[in-house]
Amino acid sequence: MKQNITLTRNPKLITLLSLILLALIYISMFGFLDDDTPIEYEKFNGTYANPIFGNMNYSEYIPGNLPLIISIPHGGHLFPPEIPDRKQNHPNVVKSNDLKTQEIGRLLADKITLRFKGRRPYLIINHLGRSKIDVNRPIKEGVEGKDSITSIVWNDYHNFMQTAIKDVEANFGHGLLVDVHGHTHPEHFVEIGYVLSAEILSLSTSQINANPEIHSGSSIRALYTRKSNNLQFADLLYGKTTSLGGRLQSHGYDTVPSHIHQHPLGDEKYFHGGYCVQKYGSRHAEQIIDAIQIEIPTSLRIGNKEKRQNFITALSESISWFLTKYYG
Ligand SMILES: *[C@@H]1O[C@H](CO)[C@@H](O)[C@H](O)[C@H]1NC(C)=O
Ligand SMILES: *[C@@H]1O[C@H](CO)[C@@H](O)[C@H](O)[C@H]1NC(C)=O
């Protein structure tokens, strides 16, 4: 008994145990950080010389020279305490980030740049956390307080979007916007949104092809209009060798819509495309830029860096293929 007491009071032993404990804390912290701050090691590679920042550096725009715009609205890492959290509580308000999407979007842009031998996509990044701002909502919903700094940031982000779109229109006459998101749905499918609901995607192929309201209501109307001599509309949504979903599915990533998963099944959750693809996509007759929302499942974003990077490689190949085939 006596000996035990002296042992636990032994300063060397206590120091040793403390060190072990600290090491364990460090390891678990490091593991946690690895999941949330990879911007240090996955950050874009210096391929882009001149990023342009909005007010307070809360938004970032990197001009490109391909007819491709990549936007990342929900991957901001900044949560300045002087900006109050959004208080809005209506049912559709989401305040959590799409984790890793900034890292994914930046690396995606790098890999596409490599594939096009230095020609690069436009990149637009929101740096504020989603508890502070949601740039993928109308300003009334995404921002609290009309005169707040976040309303300036919201406008900066959308001015960057519009500048990029005008530039692509002027230089190429057509183009593609890819809005990068992450979801937590249990199926872990990659979800591609063309602003067509699950109900519409669930119609038969012939019904989809026969109804002009379906393609003209989609965010890739302009693409279909240009290619309608050679393709049916459903080919662009889920053809094995004619759609983005088909290409990604062929890389082994379950994707909806694709030739394997033409539409979400009854109880499966599916995001069909939010504010930015609705606003900027070519479903408006006067707009010529097509827009696609890519929703990446948790399993491909978080936890395993190698798995994430393999997916980004496949996604960069698929988008580059789509761009060459339809916007070359
Ligand atoms: C924005 O970033 C630039 C370049 O990193 C820096 O020089 C500048 O001080 C920053 N501005 C603010 C308001 O943080
Ligand atoms: C990053 O830069 C290095 C050196 O220039 C290059 O070898 C590498 O391929 C680049 N990686 C990406 C993803 O751009």
TrEMBL record:
The chain crosses the membrane at residues 12-33. Keywords: Membrane, Transmembrane, Transmembrane helix. It comes from the Eukaryota. This is 6663_t:CDS:1.
